[in-house]
Amino acid sequence: MPCSDDPLARLHGRSALEDTLEMLWKKDGSPSKRRPRCGNRELDLYVFFESVRSFGGILKVHENRLMQPIAELLRLSLTATSSGYSLRLIYLKWLKPYEEQLERAIDDSYERINNFCESKRQWPDCVWSKDANVPKKRSRWKQNGAKVCSEDAHQVEEHLTEAEKAAVLSRLSVNEMEPEEQVEFEYLQDSPDLFLDIRNHILRVWYRDVSHRTSCSDILSTVPKRYHDLTKDIFIFLVRQGLINFGFLGKNQFPIRSREQMEKAPHVVIIGAGISGLAAARQLCSVGVRVSIFEARDRLGGRIHTKTSSNNEPVELGAMLITGVQQNPLNTLCRQLNAVLEVVQEDCPLYDVNGCLVPKDLDMLAEDIFNDALEETTKMRKLYKDKRHISLGSVLKRLLEEKIMLFRQNSDIKDSTIFTTLKRLAQWHIANLEYACAADLEHVSLFDWDQDDPWALEGEHAIVKGGFSQLVEGLARGFKKAWQDFDNWKHDSCIFLRHEVKAINWSSKQKNEDRGRKSFSKKESVLVKVQTPNANMREVLCDCVLITVPLGVLKERTISIYPQLPSWKQEAIDSLGFGGLNKVCLVFEEVFWKHSVFGALTDSPNERGEFYIFWDMTKCSGQTPVLVTMICEPFVGRNELADDHVCVKRAMNVLRRIFPNAPEPKESFVTRWSSDQYAGGAYSFISINSTSKTYDAMAENVGDVLYFAGEATNGRYPTTCAGAFLSGLREAGKIMKHLHLDTLLLENIQKKRKVSAFGH
Ligand SMILES: Cc1cc2nc3c(=O)[nH]c(=O)nc-3n(C[C@H](O)[C@H](O)[C@H](O)COP(=O)(O)OP(=O)(O)OC[C@H]3O[C@@H](n4cnc5c(N)ncnc54)[C@H](O)[C@@H]3O)c2cc1C
C-alpha cells in the first residue's frame, strides 16, 4: 500500500520510517546523524522513500528517468531537480540498504490505522430542507461579493479525500502552507508535508462532528508520539485562527469559573453585538476570558435583523443570504444550531417595462455583453495605471455603450426596439452590481473593486428558514443579558443591550501607538465610557477593546477615542467606501408571482436601482407570502427621506407593471440603514480613494489594546455576514495570543474527556 492518500496514515508511515531508520542506523553505527540535504534544504526522507516506492523502486525510477516528478513531490526547485543524479546517490546511500525493513514497518503502520481512515463519513453538505430548489447556473451573479461556483468545482470536489475536503471547507490550500502558517511555523518550511498532514487531519476530525468541541487529547490519541508536541502547537494555532472549535458548541462551551477566578480573568470589552462581536465573544469566553459586550441597540444582530410580522413570522430587514454555502463558516453554525438552509434559485427572469418577460435569448445576450464589458474593465487597468482615482462606473458605462453600438452595427436585426431593450437590460445589470457593491459605480475603484474574487466562497446562496437572527441568538446563548444591572458584571460575561459606548481612553497605552503587538504588562489599562439605558455614564476598565461597530459609525467619529487613532488607521477609515442599500418588504395574503427571484427593467437610468429586483422570501417565513425588493445606490438617500407609504407605493407601482392585479400588501416594512445612527449604511466597498490594502489597515490593531472586527475589516470576504463572523474569530485569536492564553487553551483542552478517535 505505498504512498497513502490519508494524512493520518502518512503520519504513521513517516513515524515508522523515522523509528526504523533511527534503529537501523544505530545498529550500523552509520551514516552520520546529519540528514541529507538537496537544493539547500533538508530532504523529506519519508516523501522520498514513498515516491520512489510508488514509481516501482529506484531501478525503475532511474531507467524511466522519473526523478523529475519525484523532485516535484519533494518540492525541490528546478535547479535542484537538475541534480537528479544527486537524489539518486542520496537514495542509494541513505535508504536503499534498508528498503525491506522500511517497507515492512511503513505497511504495518498503515494497516494499524486503517480503521480510522476507512471510516469516512458521508459529508453533510448542510442541513437542506427536502424541497430545496435545485439552482440553475448563471454566468455571473455577483451578490455581496460571492460568485456562484462552476459545475467544474463540484466535480473537482468529488475527487477530494475527506481530509482535503476539510481543508477546502476551511478555505485553506490543501497542499501548501498558507502565509500565516509559514510565519507561525517558520521552522517547518523544509517539511511542509508534515505540517499539512497534521493540520488536515485535525480539520477532518473537527468536520466529522462540528457540534462538539474537538479535543486535543482525542487528536493526540491518533497521532504518533513523536509528533505530539507539534500537534499541540498546530491544534492551538487552528483554535486561535478560528478554524476549529468555533461557533456554538453546546451549553457547556464555557469553562466553569469561580467568582474569584472570573475577577482575575483577563477582561475584554467588545463594542457591538453584531455577528462579528458575538463570534469573538464566544471564542474568548471559551478560553476563560471575561467579556463585556456593549450594544447600543435594544436587540442583538446589528445589520442582521429578522423582524417579526404581525403573523409572528420572520421578515429579513438586513442580511438575508448566506452567500457561497459550501465554504461558508455560517453553514457550520447552521448545522450546530439545527437551522435549515433553503437554496435560492439563481435563475432570475427579467420583466420589461411593458410587463412582459424579456425573451431568454435577449436576456442572455445582454448578460454576455455586460460580462464582456466587465471583463474588459480589468484590461483597462493597464491603460489607466497612472490614474488611480478612476471609477469602475465611468469605464464600464462607456464600454457598455460601445458594445451595444457595435452589436447594432454588425447585426441585421431591423426591429430597433430590441436595442432599446438591450440598453434597459444593461442598466439593470449596472443596478445589480450597485446592489453588490452598495455603491454608485461612479464611486467604486476601477482597480480594486473585485479584489476579493480569488476568495469567493464556493456553493450556492441560501436563506435561513426561520430567519438569520437565529444565528446571532445562538451565538449569544450562555451569556448573561443585562440592561441596567452592573452589580454582577465583574463575575460574568455579559451582553449589555441599550448601552452605547461614547468614549475609549487608552492613554496609559499611548506609547504603543505603533501597529502590531507589544508586550503586555499592565492589567485593565483601557477605560471605556458607556451610556446606560437611563442615560447615566459608566466607566469600565478592561485589558483591551474590540471595536466592531460598522464603518459608517467609525466614519462619523461618534465614539471619541483618546488619544486619537494613528493617522494610518484614520486614513483607512476615511477612505474605504461605505454605502447604502435598503429593502421594502411586502407581506401579502397569497402568492401571485411566479418566480423565486425576478427583475424589473426601467426606462430611466435615474431609477435603475429602485425596486429593480424582487425576492420571494416566503420560504424564510414558512407560510406568509413575502416579497422583498431593493433600493440601491445612488437612490438610497432620496428614498430614506420619503415616508414609508411613499416607498411602498413606488414599489407597488413597479410590481403592478408586471402584475396589474397585485393586491395591496397587508403589511410592509421599509428600512433606512443609512440614516440609522448605529449603522450609517449597509456595507463597505473599495472607493476610488482606497485599495485592497485599505482593508488590511482596517483589520490591524492599534498598539496592543484596540482591536477591530466587522465586515469592513475583512478584505477577503468583505460586505458579508461570513466575512464579519470570520473577522470576529480572527481578532479573538489575536487577543488570545496577546494575552498569552495558550496555557488556558491547553488547560481547557486537557480537561476534556479522553475518548480515542479510534473509538476505544
Ligand atoms: C440591507 C442589507 C442587506 C444585506 N444583505 C446581506 C446578505 O444577504 N448576505 C450577507 O452576507 N450580508 C448582507 N449584508 C451585510 C451584513 O448584514 C453585514 O456584513 C454584517 O451583518 C455585519 O456584521 P458586523 O458584526 O460587522 O456589524 P453589525 O452587524 O453592524 O454590528 C455592529 C454592532 O455595533 C453596534 N453599535 C454601533 N455603534 C455602537 C456604539 N457606539 N456602542 C455600542 N454598540 C454600537 C450596532 O448597533 C451593531 O449591533 C446586508 C446588509 C444590509 C444592511
TrEMBL record:
Q: Which UniProt keywords apply?
A: FAD, Flavoprotein, Oxidoreductase
For this protein, what is the EC number? 1.4.3.-
Matching PROSITE patterns: ARID, SWIRM
Q: Which stretches make up the SWIRM domain? A: 160-255
Q: What residues does FAD bind to? A: S276, E295, A296, V501
Q: Which GO terms describe its molecular function?
A: DNA binding; oxidoreductase activity
Q: Which top EC class is given?
A: oxidoreductase
> Its domain of life?
Eukaryota
ARID domain: residues covered? 11-103
| The keyword Protease is assigned to this record | no
What this protein needs as a cofactor is: FAD
Q: Which family does it belong to?
A: Belongs to the flavin monoamine oxidase family.
Identification of the protein by name: Amine oxidase
According to its UniProt entry, this protein's organism is Galdieria partita
